[in-house]
Structure formats: structure tokens, C-alpha cells
Specification:
471 residues; alpha/beta; Dihydrodipicolinate Reductase, domain 2; twelve-stranded mixed beta sheet; six-stranded parallel beta sheet; 14 helices
């Protein structure tokens, strides 16, 4: 298929952009809405001054589902297409939202900015570090509003809490912990490649990724657990908490050093990514530790019940000299509640995107593309360490991390969790990833294993779905 004008020269494309008046409707296209994108549709369809004028999904069944929803709301029938490039060519579209699989996020963002569209892009904004930076460059070059789907950045209670902590009200921050203890059952075991469902344009579904029929039972959603298209749960649910931790620490760059431990335990299935993982992010002066657990609290009892750390299964715990913050509360050293910060989990995030489109003020975009890039870069580092790691007996892993009390403590809880799920920790072989050093200015790995690690910074794109060197 020939290249769309959406990937043509900027001088040709910029006339597509329309200067919005205060009272003009924003004409919105929604791209990819089998899951999170449907939440976009439900939210934006209710907003005054916003018209959904186009729908795009590579699956015809998903398009029908979107049309049915809009019809039930009594809304006009929008333009539909399976090819997102047609959306970018459409002069009647001012802005786009996208909730495609991760491997499409950066390329679509770049193309949309080049086409003169503002963008709401779901988390994570990138599948690799390099393309995330290209998304930032495109947003800046074409002066487009690009907001990430990290909705907690629109939560006034969290904004207040983190500023209160950074002001030293509980003393210095000593450690930021993030948790994704979220039940993830086996995706099953296949004996042959998946038969692509009827009505799916598989070439477009693959886009920048290699075009090969996946060996699994479902095409949709389970792509999260394969490296060609997803980023494991640390890059799925976990990006929200990684971002909050980096925000709490006041860090404005990707971390200087990181490593990861993990594995896929408790069952054998087709998935490639870990269901149990620890990421050690060596920010200074206070580090970050992130934990993923997909198995339940234990083999016995409620198989949906999850572990928690100080009451948190999905969220953050910011530890300070004089206490900690978790679950919307600040606690002192003795665990006594000091102050509550009422959370709304970013209920206004979609509305803030529309506000930013009208005002063009950076302050009205709480989750700018740069924030999305930096936080994605953190978990990318951890995943790269994991992918370069080696399986070792749990005892050997414990020996190698014992010099760092925080890492050692996290790994002991890791082992106890697996034991509670019937995993023989003496025979289990977690993957121990290497410590990787990173130049945050050049956004490249340095030092030992840099050559191997840098191979994961930028993927080999499948033509014509290529993130350009110069955006």
C-alpha cells in the first residue's frame, strides 16, 4: 500500500491543522477501541463541544460495536475505516485518541502530529525507548497537544499529596515503591499458530511489528504478554505506578541504572513476559522498587485475592524518614494516620485533554508526552535487564542481591509469594537480569552489556510502518 499523505512532508501537511475557536466543536477520531478505547468513546461522546466524527479499528467487529454504541446514544453516524492512515488524511478531524496495542503508539503519534492532529495516546506511549523520544520531538516540532493516558496526573488529591511529601512534611523521601499485584491467569497453551479472526486486517494489526501469526489462543488483549507487541504488566498496569513513583521522586530523566528479577511461574502457557517481577530503579538519592505479581495470594482460598504491601495491591507507597504515604493517607513512623488526601483517580483526565486543546497552554495538559516518555523509559530499562538475564536457582539470586538490604527484602517476599502458590523456590529458577547503566542525556546504555542492551532501544520496523529518524 502506498504511503499516506500522513507520512509526507511537514510543509504539505500542516495546512490540515485548524485553529480552534472557543465555541467551535472539536472533531474527534477514535482509533483502536476494543478495550480502553471504548472508555474514550463513552467519555468523549458525552462532552459538550466534542463530536466523534470518525472511528477506526482494524477489526470490523469492533467497528460495528462502536457504531452500535453511538447509535444507542442517538449520536450521528461517523466515518469508519480499518486503516488509521485514512484518519490522518481526513481534513474533518482535528484530534485523535488511540488505544491500539503498544507497538503502534509512537508511530501513530508521530504520524498524527505530522498530519496536524492533536493526540491523546494511551499508556505506554512507546514500545521502545527511541521511538518514545521521537514522539516527543514530533509533538514539539508541530506544536501539537499530546496527552498520555496516565490519568492519575489529573488527580487533584494525588497532586496535593506528592507536593506535600516533596515539601518535606514527612522528612526526606527514602524510597518509592510501586505495586501491580493484579490477577493474571494463564492464557493457555497452543499447538499451532492462531487462525486470524475473520474481519481483521492483520497487516494493519501488525503494523511496525513482524508480520507473523502468533502462537496463542486469542489475538486481542493477550498481545500484552508478547515482546513484539506488548511490554509485560510493568508496562501495562504498571506504567501508572511507575509514573507516580518517578513523579514523587521529582526525577526528570530516565534512570541512570536499573536491573530486574522475574519469571513466569505457576503455570506453563504461550506467553513470553514475566508474571512475577521486581524492578530495581537506582535513582539518587532515593531509589524506586517496582513489583509485579500475577498469581493470587496463595494456592488455597480465593483465587482472586491478591497480596498487599501496607494495604496496597495496585498503587504506590512512598517511604520517608518520618513515615510513608499509601492509599491516599500519610502515616507517621508508627503507622498512625496523619493526613488524608482524597483521590478521584483522574476522573477529569479526558476533559483536561479537551481543555488543553482549546487553551493551548502546557499547564492544562497534566500528562504531557514527555512525562509519558520518561516513565516508559524506566520500565523499558527493567524489561531490557530481564530479557538479558539468566535463569539461576533462587538461592544464587538471593546471594547476589544480599548486599543491598532493600533489594534483598523484596526478593525474600518474592520467594515467599511463590512458595504460597505452590512453587518450589528451591527448584524455581528466576531470571536475574544484569545491572544496566544508562546515559539519560543521550538515552543510550553505557558500560558493561551496553551493546546488547542498546539492541532493545530501537526495534527493526516493518516497512512502510517505520518511525522516521527525522520527524
Amino acid at each position: 500500500m502506498a504511503r499516506s499523505v500522513a507520512v509526507g512532508a511537514a510543509a504539505f501537511l500542516m495546512p490540515h491543522a485548524r485553529v480552534l475557536g472557543a465555541n467551535e466543536d472539536i472533531r474527534l477520531a477514535i482509533v483502536g477501541f476494543n478495550s480502553q478505547g471504548m472508555a474514550h468513546m463513552k467519555s468523549f461522546s458525552k462532552m459538550a463541544g466534542v463530536r466523534i466524527v470518525a472511528l477506526c479499528d482494524c477489526d470490523q467487529k469492533v467497528i460495528k460495536k462502536g457504531l452500535k454504541f453511538l447509535d444507542e446514544q442517538g449520536l450521528p453516524v461517523p466515518t469508519t475505516t480499518q486503516d488509521l492512515r485514512r484518519i490522518l488524511d481526513d481534513r474533518n478531524v482535528d484530534a485523535v485518541t488511540t488505544a491500539t496495542p503498544n507497538h503502534w503508539h509512537s508511530l501513530f503519534t508521530v504520524w498524527a502530529c505530522q498530519a496536524g492532529k492533536d493526540v491523546y495516546v494511551e499508556k505506554p506511549i512507546s514500545h521502545e525507548i527511541w521511538e518514545g523520544r521521537k514522539s516527543v520531538e514530533a509533538a514539539r516540532k508541530y506544536q501539537k497537544v499530546v496527552q498520555c493516558g496516565m490519568h492519575n496526573r489529573s488527580d487533584p488529591g494525588l497532586q496535593e499529596a506528592l507536593e506535600w511529601l516533596k515539601a518535606g512534611n514527612l522528612g526526606k523521601i527514602t524510597l518509592a515503591r510501586g505495586f501491580c499485584y493484579k490477577r493474571r491467569e494463564s492464557i493457555g497453551k497452543s499447538t499451532e499458530p492462531l487462525k486470524i479472526p475473520e474481519g481483521v486486517d492483520f497487516d494493519l494489526w501488525c503494523g511496525p511489528a513482524p508480520k507473523k501469526a502468533p502462537v496463542r489462543k486469542r489475538l486481542h488483549y493477550d498481545w500484552h504478554w508478547f515482546w513484539d507487541t506488548g511490554n509485560a504488566d510493568i508496562g501495562n498496569q504498571g506504567i501508572h505506578e511507575v509514573d507516580q513513583c518517578r513523579w514523587a521522586l521529582g526525577q526528570t530523566g530516565i534512570a541512570p541504572r536499573a536491573m530486574s528479577i522475574g519469571g513466569r511461574f505457576g503455570y506453563e502457557d504461550d506467553a513470553e513476559t514475566p508474571n512475577t517481577q521486581i524492578a530495581f530503579i537506582d535513582y539518587k538519592p532515593a531509589p524506586m522498587i517496582f513489583e509485579v505479581r500475577g498469581l493470587p495470594r496463595g494456592k488455597e482460598g480465593d483465587q482472586k485475592a491478591m497480596d498487599n504491601y501496607k494495604g496496597i495491591s495496585i498503587g504506590i507507597c512512598i517511604e520517608c524518614e518520618g513515615g510513608y504515604f499509601a492509599g491516599g493517607w500519610a502515616y507517621d513512623k508508627d503507622g498512625k494516620k496523619v493526613r488524608q488526601f482524597k483521590r478521584d483517580n483522574g476522573a477529569s483526565h479526558h476533559a483536561n485533554f479537551i481543555k488543553a486543546l482549546r487553551s493551548r497552554k502546557p499547564a492544562d495538559n497534566p500528562a504531557d508526552i514527555l512525562e509519558g516518555h520518561l516513565s516508559a523509559g524506566v520500565f523499558h530499562m527493567a524489561n531490557i535487564s530481564y530479557r538479558l538475564g539468566k535463569e539461576l536457582p533462587a538461592g544464587e539470586v538471593a546471594e547476589k542481591v544480599k548486599a543491598d538490604p532493600q533489594n534483598a527484602e523484596a526478593f525474600e517476599r518474592f520467594k515467599a509469594h511463590l512458595a504460597a502458590n505452590g512453587v518450589d523456590v528451591d527448584k524455581a529458577k528466576p531470571v536475574l537480569g544484569p545491572w544496566l547503566d544508562f546515559d539519560a542525556e543521550k538515552e543510550r546504555f553505557t558500560g558493561a552489556m551496553a551493546d546488547e542492551a542498546n539492541k532493545y532501544v530501537r526495534r527493526e520496523y516493518r516497512a512502510p510502518f517505520v518511525v522516521p529518524e527525522t520527524v
